[in-house]
Specification:
The chain is mainly α. The protein contains 13 helices and no strands. Helix 1 packs across helix 11 and helix 5 packs antiparallel against helix 12. The chain is 74% helix and 0% strand.
Length: 287
């Protein structure tokens, strides 16, 4: 239960991302630059923990590759919250629990049980309730479609962190994943015009540091430490608590609508969290 509650806290922190990102976008920062700073600050701080032992290199490389995908996917997510309502972007992003179940089945033979499938369906149903046909513009719908790599890469990261890298310590996992994301985003950020590469005010720097610490470093550490105790199914379902957090942020800070539909969707996500089984995958048998 403690591990599950920690993952709920982690999801709430992830859900704060639009609050900081929208402020940085308003200052003129590019999506690639925001994503690079989000991962890069933490990666630099963790450089002393890069795994050096030969037996760890394979799993470290796997995490770096997942980080590369996660970093590029995050650009698509930022583009979505720039063009579409936060709740709508959350709709697409909340597909990641089902991707996690699918990848766990394909990559580690962890066949999904009825509870895991039902939890994933509940989350998607809750997210689908927030889609309002005819309200979103064509530009917003296109941005949401192109943001699909974000939930896919995040679900893969959850699986690798919780079940496929047992030889790595917590900080070693973090530097590999965050470093991989920074490596992917660095070349893209280099092509950002000077005015869009860094914040232009003290408030902007505060937002940037809050984004890096509160939505990357701290939640990544929580996922890395607590995730293996509950397994990929519940880790991903619990992470879906990000959706109601995003809805509240959109309502309180960004002036977006909050009505019975949004409240019911949040309640369904909480039900899915309770339903998802806490199955700890034993990765040791796979080396």
């Amino acid at each position: 239960m403690t591990a599950t509650m920690l993952l709920v806290l982690c999801a709430v922190l992830f859900g704060l991302t639009p609050l900081f990102a929208r402020g940085l976008q308003a200052e003129g920062m590019s999506d690639a630059a925001i994503a690079f700073w989000r991962y890069g600050v933490s990666a630099v701080c963790l450089l002393p923990f890069v795994p050096r032992r030969r037996e760890k290199r394979g799993q470290a490389l796997l995490l770096v590759m997942v980080g590369l995908l996660m970093g590029l996917g995050w650009i698509a997510y930022l583009s979505a919250i720039r063009s579409a309502p936060v709740a709508a972007a959350g709709v697409v992003y909340m597909s990641y629990p089902l991707f996690t179940v699918l990848f766990a089945w394909i990559l580690i033979g962890h066949r999904p049980g009825a509870r895991a499938v039902c939890a994933g369906v509940l989350i998607l149903a809750a997210a689908g309730m927030l889609l309002q046909p005819g309200v979103l513009s064509g530009q917003a719908m296109q941005a949401l479609l192109w943001s699909l790599p974000a939930p896919m890469s995040f679900s893969l990261a959850i699986l690798v962190l919780t079940a496929m890298t047992p030889r790595l310590g917590v900080l070693e996992k973090m530097v590999c994943a965050l470093g991989g994301a920074a490596l992917a985003l660095g070349p893209v950020a280099l092509f950002t015009p000077a005015g869009g590469a860094v914040p232009v005010s003290a408030e902007g720097w505060g937002l940037l540091l809050s984004l890096a610490a509160g939505t990357a470093f701290v939640p990544q550490m929580i996922y890395t430490m607590a995730g293996p105790f509950v397994g990929p199914a519940r880790a991903s379902a619990t992470g879906a608590f990000e959706l109601p957090t995003m809805i509240v942020i959109g309502w309180l800070a960004l002036g977006e609508a909050l009505g019975p539909r949004e409240a019911l969707a949040g309640a369904m996500v909480v039900l899915a969290i309770c339903l998802a089984p806490a199955v700890r995958v034993d990765p040791g048998a796979r080396g």
